[in-house]
Amino acid sequence: MKRNHLTLWPALGKRYRHIPILIFSLFFASFGFAQTALQVAGTVKDSKGNPLPGVSIKVRNTSFGTTTDDRGEYKLTVPSKESVIVFSSVGFLEHSQAVGTNQLVNVTMADKPNDLNEVIVIGYGQTQKKRDVGGAISSVNSKQIQERQPVNLFDALQGQAAGVLVMNDNGEPGAQGSIQIRGANTFTSEGNTPLYVVDGVITDNAAAINPNDIERIEVLKDAASASIYGARSAAGVILITTKKGREGKAKLDVQYSKIYGWLAHKIQVANASELRYYRKQQNGNLSGNNGSLTDSLNPAFNTDNDLQELLLGNTGKRDDIKMSVSGGQKGLTYYGSLNYINDQGIALNTWYKSLQSRINTEFQASPRFKYSNNLSFYWSFGNFTSINNSLRPVFDRPSYLRVYNPDGSLTSYLASKRNPVANALMEDNTRETLKAQMNNQIDFQIVKDLKFTASFNAQLTSFEGFYFQPRFLDDNGNENFGRNDMNRLFSWLLQGFLNYNKRIGDHNITGLLGAEKDRVKDDQTHLEGKNFIVETAHYVRGAFMDNLTRQTMSGSAVSTASAFARGGYSFKEKYILQATYRRDASSRFGPDNAIGNFFSGSAAWRFTDESFMQWMRGVVNDGKLRFSWGQTGNDRVGNYDYLQLINQANTSYAGIPGASLSNNFGNPALGWEATEQKNAGMDLSFLNGRISLAADYYIKTTHDLLYSKPLPGQTGFATTKVNIGTIETRGVELQLNSTLYSSKSFTWNLSGNIAFERGKISSLAGGQPFIVGKWFVEEGGKIGNFYGWKRLGIYPTDAHNAYE
């Protein structure tokens, strides 16, 4: 029997004859992949050997990927031995690993530099990792400052640190701000102003610094951190480190910003019609014209001026140009900057110009010896509004009084009221300031763990203020008036200190020992005159001085000598201790009270490093408790308040100059104002540094408050400086920082802080309350209580007015 064979190809047709070839190719491709694919497994840990869950694992340039489990373990199939695995996790540096022939790939992830590893400055050449700090210190770095594009230091710091109240300015061109740390310490504004330390140089004001020059800012809030600065640190300390050059090619940065400003809102005032009606009510003649100042033929009484718009309705414009250049070579680096500001205020004829420059150089002469030099220059010049002559008349001058005459010329006094527009345009109220500062520093590495630092700083400040009012603005139109104020301040500071840093196994020991001396001399001149012949020249000279007792010249000086020491110890960065001692001698106090001693100490415990706390490592990767106690001082009183001063030539008899006692009665028993502060805090870091929380509770007590006590007029004296009482402030601070998303091209950070503080006056000498200006001071009362009348209501009828 003949067997017939059936073939498929003709049935499938020529169109599908390539299918067997395709199936054959796919079979061998799959077989080839099975031959080269690898199964890889391993464990991912952090730098301390703890397993890391949730680590993202991907094969570069493919879609293959997985994540680690709760034990930090993973399994992954990779296409070939040439594959590269990429490990990434928030809080850690990205890690890449070639597979090769390895089927077991274990990885240790390196910590990404974050707030915990950030190195902060704690004063006198010492630094510390933020995670090892035992006191209450807030830090702001250059990146945070740059993101805000600040105009001044106060812009850079505002809202960045819990418990730090920053009032930016009063809206005046070139106006400076104010900073208060953890509430009020005393009754005077000077005593509530923090101490500024710029590159190790102590100063009472850092408003002139260019924010683009700042590398970082540390705010020492508690006494344990600030007490190293002793007698001037009661209100806290702000450490500012400026930028330095780096080796490499020169880097040039230029920045220009244009800022506009407007009056936020106006104060509601009566218009011309409302004011006329009010005058009629005052005169009891609602139907007549008596007292309404109306005259259809007199243009002086037929206007309705918006004086707020005329004086304050301008658009404020500020041009801010910043430029810096930095670079260097091996052993020599430099940084230089220039900042120019042209500020036109919203108030009529107000303006301010300033120029600031800085040059920082460092010369590493040898591996052990380094020389640093800082030079800074500041100039400002501006014209400012007069509160009494320009701003106050805006609200007390009737709006129906004309500002301009029909011919377009300005009016002067009308109905005994100044013309605020005329005063703003014609008054000269200028201020010019010049500052120059030089700081030289040498660092010598004696041995590996011991370094000696010496520095000398000198600063010269010159101020000139000119005020001139022409005859046109005089109430009678026949007298002009001028005033010249000149001030020259020269200060120097000499420092020398040793820093020791030694690590022995798990033990780390640090030490600081030093001394410093400073002196400040201040000379002031005040001249007044009138009846200037030429009104374009405003210098007060001999014959213009009609009242010689108003011409004054004065000078004063203050010196401080200090010795200080600080010691620190840590074990495995788990148990951290620090102690500080400072001894200050000030010429502002008498021989019996000239010396003040200030002690402090802090302790910190990193509880997350304990073996019994490992259960929380999956959520809290770093936790620390902090405790501190310390003493700080305040010497901001007059330079000679402990002495009875004599004024010469303020009085005369029969043309012969005489002398008289100062109206301030000297108090030889005057002593230091001391602040004691206790602080308890906790720092937590979650999700590998993605979220961090800092919480602090403090009790701050100021003893022996300095106060100018009024004296009865019968004594012949006005005031005397005394130590009068105690203030206690309690507060809570919370600061939260988080990274919601982070990639190479985009980062989203969210941070916030809040602080609560309550201060009260615990005791007063003799228990007697008193009034300081508008403030009412009494035992148990709050700082800042107003003194004034209480509004009980409005009498509905005249019959209810028992006092009429």
Q: Tell me the span between the first and last alpha carbons.
A: 146 Å
Strands, total number: 40
Structure class: mainly beta
Strand residue percentage: over 45%
- The overall pLDDT average reads 84
Give me the Rg, rounded.
Answer: 36 Å
Q: What is the molecular shape?
A: globular
User: Mind describing the biggest β-sheet?
Assistant: 17 strands, antiparallel
Low-pLDDT residue spans: 1-35
Instruction: Indicate the percent of residues in helices.
Output: under 10%
Please report the number of helical segments. Answer: 10
Name the assembly state: single chain
What does this structure look like?
The chain is mainly beta and 804 residues long. The protein has ten helices and 40 strands. The chain has a 17-stranded antiparallel β-sheet. Strands 10-15-16-13-14 form a five-stranded mixed β-sheet. The longest helix has 18 residues, at 19-36. Mean pLDDT is 84; it is low at 1-35.
